[in-house]
Amino acid sequence: MKLLILVQPGFGLWNPPSWFAERLQNEFPKLEVVQRGAEPATEYDFRDAEILVTWSLSPGQLSQATKLRWIHSPAAAVHALLIPELVASDIVLTNGSEVHAPAVAEHVITMILALAKELPQAARFQQKHEWGQSQMASSQPGVRDFAGATVGLIGAGSIGREVARLASALGMKVIAVRHDISRGTPKHIDRVYGMSDIGKLLGEADYVVLAVPVTPQTIGLMSAERISQMRPDACLINVGRGQLLDEAAFVEAMRSRKIGGAALDVFVEEPLPKESLLWDLERVVITPHTAGVSNHTWERQYAFFSEDLRRYVAGQELLGFVDKRRGY
Hints:
Elements: E1 2-6, H1 18-27, E2 32-36, H2 43-48, E3 51-53, H3 59-64, E4 70-73, H4 84-87, E5 92-95, H5 97-116, H6 119-127, H7 133-138, E6 150-154, H8 158-169, E7 173-178, E8 191-194, H9 198-204, E9 207-210, H10 224-228, E10 235-238, H11 247-255, E11 261-264, E12 284-286, H12 297-314
Parallel strand pairs: 1-2, 1-3, 3-4, 4-5, 6-7, 6-9, 7-8, 9-10, 10-11, 11-12
């Protein structure tokens, strides 16, 4: 049985470290573990691979992988893998959303606290060597408590549920929208709406958190109309993907003070171009797609994937299963 790990050029810290393949080989001696990076994978690599760890796959590569039975993406998002040929196949797809949930949820909470205490504004005053006490005290929406605030989750998957756990521990109320409300109300979430009622959530939430995958239904989810449904003092936090947000509509909303602030970690174009209008918006925190970065990332990845590998060998149900037709 062959496991092929593809290292993607330009992904840097998102690629498995060298010890990842070495440890797998030691723990599963009957498995042939091959990691390709500096030298590209060959047709032979794909032809003999039964298991593949990668972020993306081309139709040509998939056509070569005639023995492929399982693909694992270390990422939470899998839209780069969902080519029609894979969706139509019997190949099982799993992802690492559970791995990233702790780090991304901590990032969301950090952004909520930063926005509540007007830290983006404080940083701007610091850069100008200006004592901005009176301006911060009188600004809108201004410095405020986060305890008692309402967090609105658009998406109640592994990341959303971890955000809910942390937010509720800090005294916040949590509401959410999810595609399938028949799955019930997860722990730490006070109320769940269906996607058709997203406007109700937007009108109630102090902090709107985008944590849904990219699908045909969620591209452009936060349109100008949806942004206008938010409260004027509410803040938007995007840790999903840039394609969820209409960036032009968002820029207009921030410039005209239609919403109170935002924290963006993901963008339509990455790296974010130097000329982007997003950089200079007041009350906006920009992070370079680092919400999922952690000093424990690859240890968590190894623990998660090695457990799934044991399950695969034993013929058991895999963790992190992705419905390829739904995209999550």
